[in-house]
């Protein structure tokens, strides 16, 4: 007989509904618990970060630029000054209708609408797009009156050099960020630029300014000023004479320096070719290089007074003895030395007047390499002068153990060593200054933004004595005066002032191999006036004049120096002195 099936449990809808309700309630409770935990986390762990983010969104910090200080010459003439000029910018995220804003601005800025729109499109995501730079105040006021949301004006510091290219190599220039890049603008950048301030404003969701925040602004500290030793009028005289000479002789470049031998103050430093610091990128390649301190070269015969001073002080030559110059041709060992002006017996003054290589070689042989080296180094060659310009070259003086028997004669006539124009005139000024070498300088004083003196450099900075007073005065009062009046420069220098000095004509070496390049010269004149108590020393150095037009220092550099001396002393109010009788040979 078949067994009956077990009785099945009936489905209860009410129990199922209750289970679903319990699941939902549990899920809601868990969700509420998580939300509560999130709220606690936000109000504790994230509180500081979110408050800072809210502060950042509601407040905007803007830079209040400090005004860069002025650079002025020794007479107070402005050489570099900063003007605040506004740039017009667009914040694309804050502009309601970009095309409409561009159309409104186009007439005021004289900028095509499409050009503005293209500038914005080219910088996707940027909140600051400059559409016009350095607008004038009339245009700036017109833009302000438009009151277009998302369009603003930002002050931009524009460095201006009122005298253009004059003194550009000394002044240098600044970049768009307002920082000095070359010259004294770089050297004294920290003093000149000051310290920027800060201003905080409250902004709405569209980043529009609503007003100033409660946080106090930090005012800018304007930069200080720099007073130079340079005189703009002496600089003009030097630049005009140098430019005329470079053009007249088809030269590659030129340098002219005017210095006060009693103080070391540089009154003028001219370099050709030049550049305009208002637009420094527009000049020819290499034009921004200050060749007065960066381009050492073999000085040639202009170096002979330096060696003569060492010989006198060491007792290797007397003022009365006669030196055999062998009528212009002589062998020192196997080396043949010639003179352009053949002479027989000459005293030291005669050797300098005729620039005798043989006479100087004879004196150098007596001195020997050790004494020659010590003489050269004592005058400062081989070391930077310490002038305030960045990038000064130390020149080249080889260690004495690398000298040969040929070096003895070569160094005596200004070869086998390289000196900068500033080193050369600084050493020459030491002779004029009774034998005391001074550190050259370009800065007279530093001023605060209010004009108070914070640094003053008025007294001379002695480095050391390089030659005795007696030897220095012989060179100034006797030898070098007669060199100008009876030497090769006598037909080329015309001045109402009595000038002392020395010419030099040196060959230029090949850049890539040993030997000297045919037809390549550097022509030099070192001078001082008025004798017997010179107020100024002057150097003119002309590199690579066209040999077809002339290349001797007497014909090329001396006339330029004469013009500079005459113009400068007349400007300074110095009366010409009565001429004295010349010394005999």
Oligomer: single chain
Shape: elongated
Number of strands: 21
What's the name of the CATH homologous superfamily of the domain at 232-572?
DD-peptidase/beta-lactamase superfamily
CATH first level of the domain at 232-572: which class? Answer: Alpha Beta
Would you tell me which CATH topology of the domain at 232-572 applies? Beta-lactamase
Going by CATH, the architecture of the domain at 232-572 would be 3-Layer(aba) Sandwich
Note the gap between the termini.
165 Å
Which stretches are poorly predicted, pLDDT < 50 over at least 5 residues?
579-585
* Derived structural class: alpha+beta
Structure explained in plain terms:
The chain is α+β, with helices and mostly antiparallel strands and 585 residues long. It has a domain at 232-572: DD-peptidase/beta-lactamase superfamily (Beta-lactamase), CATH 3.40.710.10. Helices cover 35% and strands 21% of the residues. It is built from 17 helices and 21 strands. The strands form six sheets. Strands 2, 3, 4, 5, 8, 16 and 17 form a seven-stranded mixed beta sheet that branches. It has a five-stranded antiparallel beta sheet with strand order 10-9-21-20-19, with helices on both faces. A hairpin with a 6-residue loop joins strand 20 and strand 21. Helix 11 crosses helix 13 (357-378). The longest helix is centred in the first third of the chain and has 32 residues, at 13-44. The radius of gyration is 38 Å and the shape is elongated.
């Amino acid at each position: 007989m078949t067994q009956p099936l077990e009785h099945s449990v009936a489905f209860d809808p009410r129990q199922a509904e209750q289970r679903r309700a319990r699941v939902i309630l549990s899920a809601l409770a868990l969700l509420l618990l998580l939300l509560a935990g999130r709220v606690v986390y936000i109000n504790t762990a994230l509180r500081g970060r979110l408050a800072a983010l809210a502060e950042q969104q509601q407040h905007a910090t803007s830079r209040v630029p400090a005004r860069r200080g002025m650079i002025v010459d020794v007479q107070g003439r402005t050489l570099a000054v900063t003007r605040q000029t506004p740039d017009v910018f667009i914040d694309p995220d804050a502009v309601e209708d970009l095309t409409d804003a561009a159309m409104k601005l186009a007439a005021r800025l004289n900028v095509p609408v499409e050009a503005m729109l293209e500038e914005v499109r080219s910088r996707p995501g940027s909140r600051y797009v400059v559409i016009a730079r350095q607008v004038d105040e009339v245009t700036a006021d017109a833009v302000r009156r438009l009151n277009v949301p998302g369009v603003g004006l930002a002050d931009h510091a524009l460095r201006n050099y009122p005298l253009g290219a004059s003194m550009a190599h000394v002044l240098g220039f600044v970049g768009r960020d307002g920082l000095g890049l070359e010259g004294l603008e770089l050297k004294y950048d920290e003093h000149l630029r000051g310290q920027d301030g800060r201003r905080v404003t409250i902004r709405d969701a569209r980043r529009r300014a609503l007003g100033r925040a409660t946080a106090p602004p930090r005012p800018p500290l304007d930069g200080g000023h720099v007073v130079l030793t340079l005189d703009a009028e002496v600089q003009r005289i030097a630049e005009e004479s140098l430019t005329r000479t470079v053009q007249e002789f088809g030269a590659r470049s030129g340098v002219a320096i005017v210095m006060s031998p009693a103080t070391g103050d540089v009154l003028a430093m001219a370099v050709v070719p030049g550049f305009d610091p208002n637009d420094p990128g527009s000049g020819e390649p290499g034009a921004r290089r200050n060749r007065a301190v960066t381009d050492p070269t073999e000085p040639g015969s202009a170096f002979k007074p330096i060696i003569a001073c060492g010989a006198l002080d060491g007792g290797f030559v007397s003022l009365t003895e006669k030196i055999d110059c062998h009528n212009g041709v002589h062998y020192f060992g196997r080396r043949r030395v010639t003179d352009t002006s053949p002479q027989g017996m000459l005293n030291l003054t005669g050797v300098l007047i005729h620039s005798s290589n043989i006479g100087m070689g004879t004196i150098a042989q007596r001195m020997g390499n050790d004494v020659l080296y010590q003489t050269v180094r004592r005058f400062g060659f081989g070391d930077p002068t310490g002038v305030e310009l960045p990038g000064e070259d130390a020149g080249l003086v080889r260690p004495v153990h690398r000298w040969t028997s040929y070096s003895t004669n070569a160094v005596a006539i200004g070869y086998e060593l390289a000196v900068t124009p500033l080193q050369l005139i600084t050493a020459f000024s030491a002779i004029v200054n009774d034998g005391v070498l001074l550190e050259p300088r370009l800065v007279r004083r530093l001023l605060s933004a209010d004009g108070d003196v914070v640094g003053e450099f008025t007294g001379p900075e002695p480095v050391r004595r390089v030659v005795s007073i007696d030897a220095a005065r012989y060179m100034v009062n006797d030898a070098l005066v007669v060199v100008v009046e009876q030497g090769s420069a006598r037909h080329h220098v015309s001045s109402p002032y009595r000038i002392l000095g020395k010419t030099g004509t040196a060959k230029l070496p090949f850049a890539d191999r040993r030997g000297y390049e045919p037809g390549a010269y550097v022509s030099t004149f070192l001078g001082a006036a008025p004798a017997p108590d010179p107020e100024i020393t002057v150097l003119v150095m002309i590199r690579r004049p066209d040999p077809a037009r002339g290349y001797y220092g007497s014909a090329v550099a001396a006339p330029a120096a004469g013009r500079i001396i005459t113009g400068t002393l007349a400007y300074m109010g110095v009366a010409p002195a009565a001429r004295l009788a010349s010394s005999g040979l």
